[in-house]
Amino acid sequence: EKLSKNLTISTEDVTGIHDYSLRESSVKIYPNPSADYVNLNYSTPKTGTIVITLYNMNGRKLTELLNETQGLGDHQRKIDLQGFEAGIYLISIQNNEHTVLKKIVKL
Fold first, then answer.
1. Residues 4, 13: Cα–Cα separation, whole Å
2. Which string of DSSP letters, residue by residue, matches 7-29?
3. Is the CB of residue 93 less than 8 Å from the CB of residue 28?
4. What is the DSSP string of 33-85?
5. Confidence bin at 6 (pLDDT 50/70/90)
6. Cα 15-72-67 angle, rounded to 5 deg
7. What number of other Cβ atoms are within 10 A of residue 101's Cβ?
8. How far apart are CA 9 and CA 50, in angstroms?
9. What does the pLDDT average to over 19-41?
10. Dihedral sign, Cα of residue 80, residue 85, residue 88, residue 90
11. Which of 45, 58, 95, 99 is most buried, judged by most C-beta within 10 A?
12. pLDDT, tens digit, for every residue of 50-93?
């Protein structure tokens, strides 16, 4: 009895890798710390629902700042902090695939 030891390898050209996640490196918050407002800049890798939520440090949801469909590209939101006490807050930026959490310091 004879065993055949043939191995066939096939390759395909890779033309690109599609990453549709919201990246932490694409989220910028400034000025931080701030007494009155912060600017939130972020990039969406494809059209989809973006939800931006503000939490206190205990994880309690304070307010949903945005919940809408946005197109591919760069976006900016001005977030008013004047109604909040001084302290540290978490902002969540979420698309269908990923969530980014960032700290905001309110003076």
1. 29
2. --------------SPPGGG-EE
3. no
4. SBSSEEEEEEEESSSEEEEEEEEETT--EEEEEEEEEE-SEEEEEEEE-TTS-
5. low
6. 135
7. 13
8. 42
9. 85
10. negative
11. 95
12. 999 999 999 999 999 999 999 999 999 999 999 999 999 999 99
